């Protein structure tokens, strides 16, 4: 975690520089000196506030996760209707929001996933991230599906969101956001069609509007 005292604008500048460096040369070749050069600061500032490259990577991922959470929360707070379908669509849309699919952010995500397998602090962030996605999907599915069916639907959609995003990130042509969203919507509609209360229209009333998304 970064030390207190750094101005938010400088912190954001260093995080952006980290993503740009990863975009340019990959995580392995991203050094404190390279990040400092991107940010136009001395390497000593990074070491002082973040303790080095690993600390800055953790802070960068916390920022990316926070941006995603804010994006999804805003989408859910402005929905025209409080239905499970609308809320889950907002979660899907947030995961494929332009703030999450830029080249630098996608490469940072990939670097984070790979590093989380070896670094406990990043692994904890990844677990929180996964659990929040599953929990919020499950909460919405539970409003219209039996418990076990809701859990299975949430696990399936979470895996689909991550899978579509990952395949798009690795594809030479990049991620086709519209196609990814349509595929996720199709899966969502198939699951909701299994609801004993399904009628092709609204799917229940919201139980807890304050229980907004994950990251």
Automatic annotation (TrEMBL):
The keyword Metal-binding does not apply. Residues 31-50 bind DNA. Keywords: DNA-binding, Repressor, Transcription, Transcription regulation. Signal peptide: none annotated. Coiled coil: none annotated. GO terms for biological process: glycine betaine biosynthetic process from choline; negative regulation of DNA-templated transcription. Residues 195-206 have a biased composition (Basic residues). It comes from the Bacteria. One of its GO terms (molecular function) is transcription cis-regulatory region binding. Residues 195-215 are annotated as: Disordered. Residues 8-68 form the HTH tetR-type domain. Pathway: Amine and polyamine biosynthesis; betaine biosynthesis via choline pathway [regulation]. Repressor involved in choline regulation of the bet genes. Repressor involved in the biosynthesis of the osmoprotectant glycine betaine. It represses transcription of the choline transporter BetT and the genes of BetAB involved in the synthesis of glycine betaine. NCBIfam families: betaine_BetI (TIGR03384), PRK00767.1 (NF001978). HAMAP family: HTH_type_BetI. This is HTH-type transcriptional regulator BetI.
């Amino acid at each position: 975690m970064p030390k207190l005292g750094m101005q938010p604008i400088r912190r954001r500048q260093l995080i952006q520089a980290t993503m740009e460096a990863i975009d340019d040369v990959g995580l392995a070749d991203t050094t404190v000196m390279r990040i400092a050069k991107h940010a136009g600061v001395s390497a000593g500032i990074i070491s002082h506030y973040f303790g080095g490259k690993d600390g800055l990577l953790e802070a960068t991922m916390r920022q990316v996760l926070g941006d995603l959470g804010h994006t999804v929360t805003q989408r859910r707070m402005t929905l025209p209707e409080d239905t499970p379908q609308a809320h889950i669509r907002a979660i899907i849309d947030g995961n494929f929001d332009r703030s999450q699919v830029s080249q630098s952010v996608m490469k940072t995500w990939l670097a984070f996933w790979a590093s989380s397998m070896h670094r406990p602090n990043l692994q904890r962030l990844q677990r929180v991230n996964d659990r929040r996605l599953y929990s919020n999907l499950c909460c919405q599915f539970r409003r219209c599906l039996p418990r076990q069916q809701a859990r299975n639907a949430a696990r399936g959609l979470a895996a689909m969101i991550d899978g579509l995003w990952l395949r798009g990130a690795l594809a030479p042509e990049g991620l086709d956001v519209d196609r990814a969203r349509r595929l996720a919507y199709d899966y969502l509609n198939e699951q909701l069609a299994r609801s004993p209360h399904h009628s092709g229209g609204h799917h229940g009333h919201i139980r807890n509007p304050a229980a907004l998304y994950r990251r």
